Amino acid sequence: MKKTIVLLSFALTLLFVAPVKELKAENYLLKNEIAASDSMNLMAEFSLFYEYYKNKDYKSALPYALDIIKRNPKPFLRYHPFSKMADMCWFMHDSVATSPQEKLAYADTLIYALNQGMKYVKDSVKLSDFHKIEGVVYETWYTPSKVDSAIHHYEIALALNPNLEDYYKDRLGLLYIKLSENDDSYKMKALQLYSAMSEKEPSNPTWIKRIEGLADNIDELVDITKKAWDLDKNNTEKAWKYASLCIKAEEYEKAVEPLQFLIKKSPEVVNYRVELARAYTKLEKFHDALKEYKELIKLDPKNRDYYVNTAIIYKDMDQLSVARSYLEKAMKVDPKWDYPHYVLGTIYEQAARACKFDFNAKLVYLLARNEYRKAVSLKGTYASVAAERVAALKDSVPQKEDYFFRKLKSGDKVKVAGQCFGWIKRSVIVP
Predict the structure, then answer these.
(1) How many whole angstroms separate alpha carbon 146 and alpha carbon 111?
(2) For the whole model, what pTM was predicted?
(3) How many domains does the chain have?
(4) Which pairing describes strands 413-415 and 427-429: parallel, antiparallel, or unpaired?
(5) pLDDT digit of tens for each residue in the chain (431 aa)?
(6) Does some domain include residue 361?
(7) Within a domain: 399
(8) What is the DSSP annotation of 111-146?
(9) Which DSSP category does 36 fall into?
(10) What is the DSSP-derived secondary structure letter of residue 94?
(11) Which residues contact 305 (CB under 8 A, 6 or more apart)?
(12) Which domain holds residue 421?
């Protein structure tokens, strides 16, 4: 939801862009090829137009369509005359027109028809369609390209329809990039646009590639976004862009300030707090990270990830008993998840390695092996790596002679003892 809001927020800002002066269609097609007379009945003209259109005789259909659009298209709006004009002009421009003069004629004619259509069409998505078509025409049908006009119409199209196809958003972004060579403000616009697209489609590598191509290195982008936020310090969208780029650049220390600001502004948005917890973890500010994860658990006690991430931090702090308690909570939230069992196995291994290798240490390795086996049985993401650990611990667990000398039989319950393992308070069953 937040990603949609980010893109919508970006789109709405474009509504306030100063309009570009529109091209007036004054070419030979409009002036000289309107065969229908003013006295001809509009219905008769429409019938001729529609018949020619159905038969794909666009050259004959266009003069009648143009006259209808100029005189009074209102009675025929249900037949979508403006969209049909676009179809015809597009076909004629790409398939029939040969000379530059002819191509210019169809470009001007299409612009004229769409501008007329904007006076009658009220639906925002349909209006967006008209503007996106104008954007392409201004960008690709004129020599040289009318870049400012193209940008203007792409921006309006996006503002009217935040779900505008990626193709048109990308065309807009590429024009921003083109102009950014001489104007950093366009670099910021491109960054804002592609960041929103990347948030919406995080698995699409094209948007990341576009962002990376905006500067010689990502550090420059970090500096640009920081300057943008510094100039508008209460802007949450700019703060999030800065934080996101800092995280991407692994500048976690820099990410802390905007993330703290965002949490203060919107404490209910868990994503901000998740990213801050991760940043603190990367910076090894474990107490700060734990504070954030515990707050996240309060906000969403059914989220298994928060318990495991908290456990891993306690594990890194060598507070193994507390780490285990959080893993057990994660297991209750999702009994079929293999990861907590895998992590608990690593905790038992960590404990055993820190102490003298004796029978009790072997029992702790057996505890670890049992957790790995549970992870394998759940057939999750960590099943294969857990299986590798099961095999690796084969010689570290008690052997037959260890049980024999202690008169322990299969099925006996043996408690882990020893001062080094006082926190474990677990037993194993002799296999």
Answers:
(1) 13
(2) 0.64
(3) 1
(4) antiparallel
(5) 444 444 444 443 443 333 333 334 444 354 444 444 444 588 998 999 999 999 999 999 999 999 899 989 999 999 999 999 999 999 999 998 778 999 999 999 999 999 999 999 889 999 999 999 999 999 999 999 999 999 999 999 999 999 999 999 999 999 999 998 888 789 889 988 988 898 788 788 898 788 878 776 778 888 888 988 998 899 998 899 899 989 988 999 999 999 999 999 999 999 999 999 999 999 999 999 999 999 999 999 999 999 999 999 999 999 999 999 999 999 999 999 999 999 999 999 999 999 999 999 999 999 999 999 999 999 999 999 999 999 999 999 999 999 999 999 999 999 999 999 999 999 999 99
(6) yes
(7) yes
(8) HHHHHHHTTT---HHHHHHHHHHHHHHHHHTSSS--
(9) S
(10) I
(11) none
(12) 335-431
Q: What are the structure tokens assigned to 12, written together? A: 């709405």
3-state SS assignment for residue 241: helix
Flag whether 405 is in a domain.
Answer: yes
Any domain includes 390? yes
